[in-house]
Amino acid sequence: MRNFSFKSHLRGKTVALVGPANYLSEFEFGKEINSRDIVIRINRGMELVENHSKQVGDRTDILYSCLIEHPDNAGRIDIKNLLDNNVKWVCTIPHSSARGEKTYPFLSPQVNLIKVLKVFFKINLHIFNIKKYGELNKNLKARANTGFAAIFDLLQYDIKELYITGFSFYMDPFMKGYKKGCSRNEEEFAKDCFTSIRHDQVNQWRFLKKHKNHSLLNFDPVLEEILKLETLDSNLFNAIIENVKNS
User: Fold this and answer.
1) What is the pLDDT of residues 22-55, one digit of tens each?
2) E-assigned strands of the chain?
3) Fold of 2-246
4) With contact defined as beta carbons under 8 Å apart, do 82 and 75 qualify?
5) Residues paired with residue 165 on neighbouring β-strands, in sequence order
6) In the chain, where are the structural domains located?
7) Alpha-carbon torsion angle 134, 136, 153, 69, nearest 10
8) Fewest CB within a 10 Å sphere: which of 62, 151, 165, 193?
9) Banded pLDDT at 247 (limits 50, 70, 90)
10) Residue 2 confidence (pLDDT) above 80
């Protein structure tokens, strides 16, 4: 019944999926993001709204979260804050092996199940279908990042459009403040993510490239250029930003 409600909530809607890539700080995409019927953020993305609303918008209708309450991951899951900000759904992914070879019918053992129950009863909880998530990881030959998984979860539903922004496959850092409280700053963290074997960024980039002409997908101009690259080379990123600014 809960997944049926999620399907109904999305039906016929335009959706903005907002990642935490630092290039968003260079542009004012906030109005573009807010123009969608539903705005979705990832893990600690809500923490960016207060100081960057012109860049990332000021609404959060749905949160995709790994639910692991550590600064490196989802940060603190604050039920009151979610309710105060009118978040209607919290979505997550099933547990999988380190490289995504196997998917399990439960959440990560690092997830606080009492907190999950509170989300379930006080807000709404949606979990990416275990079979579909497993198929995605198999295609990637890696474990999909939560935000990347959200793309292919959302495409299963009868939405009108999926606008994706703030995804760079870690060619640039996270937005300043996104990793507050971590032992690594946003730049160091992103560099480690870019070379991650577990969350293989090249494989995820290639997979999205194959689907970039999907009728429901619409990308911000930076991500559009990233998906045109022949190779995922972070040395090309500054040139992309300058080209977009001058276009």
Assistant:
1) 999 999 999 999 999 999 999 999 999 999 999 9
2) 14-18, 38-42, 62-64, 89-92, 125-127, 161-165, 217-219
3) sialyltransferase cstii, chain A (3.90.1480)
4) no
5) 18
6) 2-246
7) 70
8) 193
9) confident
10) no
